Amino acid sequence: MSFRVFLRRYATKHDLSKVRNIGIIAHIDAGKTTTTERMLYYSGKINRIGDVDQGDTITDYLPQERSRGITIQSAAISFNWKKDFKINLIDTPGHADFTFEVIRSLKVLDGCVAILDSVAGVEAQTEKVWKQSTGLPKICFLNKMDRVGAGFSRTVKELVVKMNIRALLINTPIFTVDPVTKESKFNGVLDLIYGKQLIWDTNDPDKISVTDIDEEHEGYEDLVKGREALVETLGETDETIIDRFFNDANGEYLNVSPEALNKSIRQATLSLSATPVLCGASFRNIGVQPLLDAIVNYLPSPSEARPPELNHKELSITQNPKTGLVLNKNPNLCVALAFKVITDAIRGTMIFIRVYSGVLRSNHTVYNTTTGVKFKIGKLVIMHANIPEEGNELYPGDIGVLTGSNVSDNIRTGDTLVTHVTKKDGLRSFDKKKELTLKINPIEIPPPVFNAAIEPKTLGNKKPMEDALNQLTREDPSLVVTQDEETGQTLLSGMGELHLDIARDRLLNELNAQVDVGRVIVSYKEALNFTSKEKTVETDDGYRLTAVIEPLDEESRANPAANEEWYTLANDNNYMIMEQHSQYDQDKNWPFQVPYVAIVNSLLPSCLVALQRGGKIGGFPLASCVVRIKNDWEVPIDATSISPLLSISRQLLTNILIEEDQSNYSVLEPIMNVDVNVQQQDMGPVIQDLSSARKANILSIDDENNVSTNESNIKFQQVADEMWLPKDSTMEFAKLGKEGQATKMVRAQAPLKEMVAYNNKIRSITQGRGSFNMYYHGMQPVTHDRVKSVLADYHH
């Protein structure tokens, strides 16, 4: 079959313009899973609405998720909207401990729905996930408008100022007064695009009353002002809408057609110049259908999405509106990214992938560019939360699953897979230098900050324990298992206390591991202060290796030398550098039986193990180090296996570290960004406690609703002050706390060790009025006066 014939069949079968890959991001408890459940119901995917509190939602299917009422693991599900559109949705966790789930999900998404709690407004974790999704077009959904204290206009203003965006109001809230209780009740929205009032029947989730807004309607004034604001905001970046306003609409804002508005809003959203904002109350089934309409109207298809990051900057990327991405001018090339691994009780290991170019078919042979291994895949699966549906093909933009023992053994999170569209192409016609070494959208794993010791109950439980830990870390690479070679103790490291608590729960109750789990303690590292002594090892059978270990230089990593190749060593911000060989070129005059990638892959584990052995102060694993393999290495020309290189390199690197003087090591500890919301009356005690007991560095103290005074925030504060917003009674009290006191935001940085159990302390100091959010900043050297207390705490 010619490619032209294939293209014709492909284009009629799969319309990329109708596909949306989106993620739901938000602060914890903003209503992500509740909103997702309503989307599935209104799309016809499910016929009954689940409840987070009842533990029967589709996307929260892990026992720990259902018992705790929180999302722990991102879940992928596909459904159709209005028949023509296919939405691939990923529901992500909101808790900071599971930030890696958000990071890896964002790597394969084309757009996001940011959900905000209209009572709480823009929360610290909202700001964090917003920054993590920089570059992705977004829609904002202001949820929980039915709650007491919900403020639509107040939350929109916070969005504009804190996120530095221009908001496009797609709809605004409608409240009615209960004739009996006289209370104001949220029950619908004013659609500013189509000029209609939508009222939901809270007793019947499928019943909506739609009314045209005319001059006699009480919402007419808001419609006129809202339309005016919308057209003028769009006109700042789109001259076409101005032409439509003057020529087609005769200078009347209400006469601008919905089609013209939607086209302009879509253009503004995709160019990141503005963000559509909608409102609703998902738990009351209000506002979800307009949100689904906005997703298909304003968020990008795979052929409109930002191109993926590639390790070869010179490799060309073009967009074909029918077939999606074309990489390296090769229309037959299929490229996919493995971004998640789970273990199913029936199907075994399941690898989630996103296809970027070409078509991936069942039973094709694929090549893993990370490991240099080729293998045959089995059946392809489309996941609907934890319910699989088998398929034969995955198209560009599709999110699917690979299963079977072949994929289990050969793919891990972050691996790039390549193959050809048709079987007869095989792997022979690949561009070896670019396509077979292609890495797409690299996934960086944040360093773990807490440890817990894991011990088998008996010697016979050791192997099952290791198998269970291997499954945990395979599914969640932000969990790290290390072993102290001197004591034999196994440590499990994670992103937070809750993260490790969930891991412990799964080990004991789901994986039935017979283990004892120790107390959770802060994770410390060591680093080299100066470059180590260079050391060489030579063997009689023809192996030679020279290496040196250096402190990481971020500038060198960002701008590597032409003769260097950098390889990440998973966690702890460690890298290996392979210098280009002084005699051989891997692409031209390569004389060895074994490929270059095999030599690299034999050295990477040695580097990892050597650095994990730890430094000389506290035996902590080394971080922010670079292992440099010099350009004079040798292996036997006729060697078909280079397994000896593994033991030789491990011993060489271990000896380098052993011979280094203790004075060349320093202890590193995790430093956290801390944002404390506190009323004016509690400022003194809170700052005193942070500065003294918490060893914190106070960065700023600002009004809670105007956190930053940099130039950009001042600009958008002006935008927020000048934009039209509907009346909102909570605006008057936006800057006041529970007792009429001005609310302040204290931003600080503090050692994680000193912030353990801070929640109890802040509640005690402020009598329950204060709250805080904490997230990882980076590793910093422990001050000399604190080293002894750190060592005593760790080895207690």
UniProtKB/TrEMBL annotation:
Annotated function: Mitochondrial GTPase that mediates the disassembly of ribosomes from messenger RNA at the termination of mitochondrial protein biosynthesis. Not involved in the GTP-dependent ribosomal translocation step during translation elongation.
Name of a matching Pfam family: GTP_EFTU
This chain is encoded by the gene named MEF2
Stretches that traverse the bilayer:
none
Please name the source species. Kluyveromyces dobzhanskii CBS 2104
Which protein are we looking at? Ribosome-releasing factor 2, mitochondrial
Coiled-coil region list:
none
Compartments, record wording? Mitochondrion
| Chain positions recorded as GTP binding sites | 26-33, 91-95, 143-146
Name the SUPFAM superfamilies for this protein: EF-G C-terminal domain-like (SSF54980), P-loop containing nucleoside triphosphate hydrolases (SSF52540), Translation proteins (SSF50447)
Gene3D superfamilies per the UniProt record, alphabetical: 3.30.70.240, Elongation Factor G (Translational Gtpase), domain 3, P-loop containing nucleotide triphosphate hydrolases, Translation factors
Primary localization class, coarse: mitochondrion
Keyword annotations from UniProtKB, A to Z: GTP-binding, Mitochondrion, Nucleotide-binding, Protein biosynthesis
Location of the Tr-type G domain: 17-303
Q: Please indicate if the UniProt record lists Protein biosynthesis as a keyword.
A: yes
